[in-house]
Design brief:
Layout (H helix, E strand, L loop, with lengths): L10 E10 L2 E15 L12 E3 L1 H13 L5 H7 L14 E7 L6 H17 L4 E7 L9 H10 L1 H25 L8 E8 L2 H15 L9 E7 L17 H8 E8 L4 H10 L6 H4 L11 E5 L17 H12 L11
Parallel strand pairs: 1-5, 4-5, 4-6, 6-7, 7-8, 8-9
Antiparallel strand pairs: 1-2, 2-3
């Protein structure tokens, strides 16, 4: 694989939390708010963030995505050489979304976001990362209110998914209309969801699919990486009605990869206390690997993580981050390398 381009793009944040004087609150808003933060600013200080109108947020992301460097194969294709433009697609940069989990204040969420952006995106050349922070209560006693907020965030989450997709689609349409391959968008759309953030994504993708009349041939998200997913482990079982969340998600995502570990006692408690006996995907993996949609897979990260703060250990463990990078880059599941 060719050398990766390392670029630190600006920090972006979208939220359906209400905006207060001292930051983002635990209350849910009916509409999204958007922010940008320059490099090297104190990210957990709301005064470091510049609020953007929705149109300006889209323009900024479109500018960033337009500045992504082409892969060698894309350069060759744009020069009219006989080469498959996507043959080195793992090098293509991403316009990605990070969706945090339960029990996260906005300060917790933004600090985790900044860490992932620096270590996985800036240093490894993965592209640009946007934080989506939803109104988690940030307390260990707030699980049920958080889950209701996660469910109710579906409409705004769908808005954000379609906004990101439209940024890519507009450039693709221009390239098709002009016949100029250099006009193609150089960005993939991907998501990293952690813990209950996966439930937020689940509901958002289901809403987006219904808005689009449950399409079968539209890829809204290229790679969905589900880390310590606090969702039912039979979510993606085949044989469900086409209107069920798992089916809708599989239709809109090119590939879905779940990173799990049986060491995650946070998810063990979640399954027993609140979910009618369903096991958690992030703790047990897929319920029946032989009977899921063919673009869904799981990987046990127990041997890759540091045995501390296990529920979020993927982000703190270099070997697990290596695996997460491969999942996002689209390396075939049969060729994922899990460092010993």
């Amino acid at each position: 694989m060719a050398a990766k381009t390392t670029t630190a793009y600006p920090m972006f944040m979208a939220t359906n939390r209400k905006v207060g004087k001292n930051g983002l609150t635990e209350d849910r808003s009916d509409k999204l708010s958007f922010f940008e933060c320059k490099a090297n600013c104190p990210v957990d200080d709301i005064s470091s963030w510049t609020r953007l109108e929705a149109e300006d947020f889209v323009k900024r992301l479109r500018t960033v995505a337009g500045s992504f460097p082409p892969t060698p194969a894309q350069v060759a294709a744009e020069a009219g050489k006989p080469v498959l433009a996507d043959e080195d697609h793992p090098l293509q940069q991403h316009l990605s979304l990070f969706v945090h989990g339960y029990n996260n204040s906005w300060q917790d969420a933004v600090k985790r976001y900044a860490q992932i952006k620096t270590e996985l995106y800036d240093k490894r050349g993965l592209g640009a990362l946007v934080l989506y922070t939803w109104p988690s209560n940030g307390t260990s006693a707030g699980y049920l209110p958080d889950r209701e907020d996660a469910r109710a965030s579906g409409e705004q989450t769908a808005d954000l998914f379609t906004t990101l997709h439209d940024i890519v689609l507009k450039n693709e349409l221009v390239a098709a209309d002009t016949g100029d391959p250099s006009k193609r968008c150089r960005a993939k759309i991907s998501i990293i969801a952690h813990s209950m953030g996966n439930y937020v994504v689940q509901k958002g993708l289901a809403v987006a699919a219904r808005r689009l009349n449950s399409p079968q041939l539209i890829t809204l998200i290229h790679q969905l990486a589900m880390v310590a997913a606090d969702v039912d482990n039979d979510l993606f079982q085949q044989g469900q009605p086409d209107t069920q969340d798992g089916s809708l998600m599989a239709n809109l995502c090119y590939r879905i990869g779940a990173l799990y570990t049986g060491l995650d006692n946070v998810l063990g408690a979640s399954a027993g206390l609140k979910h009618f006996g369903k096991r958690r995907l992030g703790r047990s993996g897929l319920a029946d690997r032989d009977n899921v949609y063919d673009n869904v897979f799981d990987e046990d990260v127990s041997d890759l993580i540091i045995r501390k703060n296990i529920h979020s250990a993927v982000f703190d463990s270099p070997k697990a981050m290596d695996l997460l990078e491969q999942v996002l880059r689209g390396i075939d599941r049969k060729f994922l390398k899990k460092a010993a």
